[in-house]
UniProtKB/TrEMBL annotation:
GO terms for cellular component: plasma membrane. GO terms for molecular function: transmembrane transporter activity. It is found in: Cell membrane. This is Membrane transport protein, FUSC family, putative. The lineage of its organism: Bacteria, Pseudomonadati, Thermodesulfobacteriota, Desulfuromonadia, Desulfuromonadales. The keyword Transport applies. Signal peptide: none annotated. InterPro entries: PHBA_efflux_AaeB/fusaric-R (IPR006726). It is a multi-pass membrane protein.
Amino acid sequence: MKSTIRRPRRFDLLAAVKGVAAQTGKEAAIWLFALKQTLAVLLAMWVSLRFELGQPSTAMVTVYVLMHPQSGMVLTKSAYRILGTLFGAAACLVLFALFPQQRVLFLLGLSLWVGFCTAGAALNRNFRCYGFTLAGYTAAMVGLSLVNHPMSFFAYASNRISEVAVGILCAGLVGDLIFPQHLGSTIVRSVQSRYTEFCGFVQALFTGKMSPRDVEGTHLRFIHSVLTLESLRGASLLETTQTPRGDARLRRMNRDFMAASTTLHSIDQLMKRLQKAESPAAPGLVLLAESLAEALLNDGEPARTEAEAHRSSRRIAAYNATLDERVAALHHDLGTPPDSPTTLDFVTGVELIRRLAQEIQDYTGAYAAGPEEHSPLGSEDLHFASRTDPAVAILNGIRAMLTLFLISMFWIGTSWQYGNVAVMSVAIGCSLFAPAPDPTKALTGGLIGHALGFPAAFICKFLILPHLSGFGMLCAVLVPFLLVGSWLAMSPKTANYSLAYSVMVCFMIAPSNSMQYDPMYMLNFGNALMLGLAAAAVMFAIFIPPTGSWFKHRIPKMLRRQVLKVCSAPLSGLEHRFESGTRDLLQKIAAGQSAQNSPDQNALDWMFLALETGRAVIHLRQAAQNMSQQLRLKEVDESIALIQQLFRRPTGGNHAAAITGVENAIDAIRSQQNRETAGHLLDGDLHQMTTSLHFIRIALLDDETALAASTNGPAPRHRGEISYAA
């Protein structure tokens, strides 16, 4: 008789100690970054003062904009900041040359430039977006400061570029020399946690241990992880630790992960639909799926290390080697003829499970590849496809242009002495916050940050600094005020205020070799900054707001367009472009990792339907392409055209026509297959075409999809076939 061994309580205590240590380590890392950031700001201020640059505050603000816990982020942002600054200064020079003494035309040209850069920032991702942002507000800062003194352009522009360069240099030096944190380690942790979570998700999903809400949340986390890893990969290219082989391996891992997660979702949906229809094929498919999930585990736990992933890879290979025997035995137990609907259900599920096993093996192999020099580069196109609605980008540009021009006309009409400062604030606010998921919320957060920084800067400059002297005392006084900005960044609730607070403190205190103490100028300057930002927030809130229902209804249309593309686009590299582009469309929803409202839920439903249908169409086209021209079936091409028409215009008539077209294609393939081919369950292009079409048919008959809701329910069943709806 075996005795039950109780786990000692010291293990629970040990776990608690580890949890406290992990939390303490996280807090320590945050404060370490805050101290590094403050040190870099003070260093930038000292260098600017030492070389007698005009505005040391510009170098200080540059550090706040660039500084990041990982050095790769600092290097990449620095490169795009330099490019953006140069392009912005060049655009300002062109405007001065075209309209040297025509202020209205100059401001109109500046508004057009800022609108163009705002639209470019919305169309691009990651740091290309940042380059457009810098090009927009750099032209505004230089031009509005010299609008009445254009002859001083070259001296002012060279001074500003020097200050930006100082800020970049100080941020890079402090980030790389003092307790550096490279992106490589962050990427490794992200890859490891995602692989472990995916293996656990497969096991929990196939054993029925997850609720639908948990499944949805996990898929959103996976989408967010794909976009995050792509962003980190792009930022790490300037790190010396990253090589072309390592970059290619990350691209391939993202590709394999997206393919496996899409197939996993397709299997889950197929299982649910078959079980609702009480198809006799469902129990056998469940057994195959559960045995695949078991092959992923090491002693009941998902693989974490590369060595454990190697063992998982061998078990998955063994699973694939014995899959044909298991399928043959299950089909024998099923006892249905090869051309029966139940057999078609069964072989469709088997095809998906086989594909998932191969995709997981590829993903596991890439994960367990170990040192990047042992990972082959390959020649496939693995470029991530970003998808942005051009209408959204154009409206962002128009909104920024109108806001800037209206405030400019208010400045001219009222002869407001500080109107140029308000216009500059509008340009900075529109350029920085227009690409945000919720620009109005971001602008409001910036306004609150300015409101917090303004009294802090006033107290520091007029109540403390006049009584002190020397650079050391200046630093000692500034440190507490600067650390407040870093403290605000530590909490998600106040993180939106952090940068605006720090910018306000730096610009308002404006340290220089010869300090100017003018309270009225500071009050007028600060009020103009906040009024300009408030005007931008109001404009974004009332003029076709980006968070309105019109924008959210655009996402399903963009997702349907993804399916339209896979029906006709060239097949080379299409699968990866489709997978990445479809996920990229949901970046704003994935960032929150939950569907917040009905439009978000509708967009999420359309994404799942687009992924499973689009992948099936791609596999159908690939199999059809392998057929000789004499054996090509016009019914297959017609079914693809009808699916394309359905996703272009989801109506009841198109829905019924698409189902009819798919059924006709299945019948045509069956009539072409001879008895020997029909007897094989897992071989041939005709088989893949049949299973792809049958999967599409089952999805189209499901009355719980977003497509069914758009077409007022599923089309009537044809020829007495089984209903796969609830």
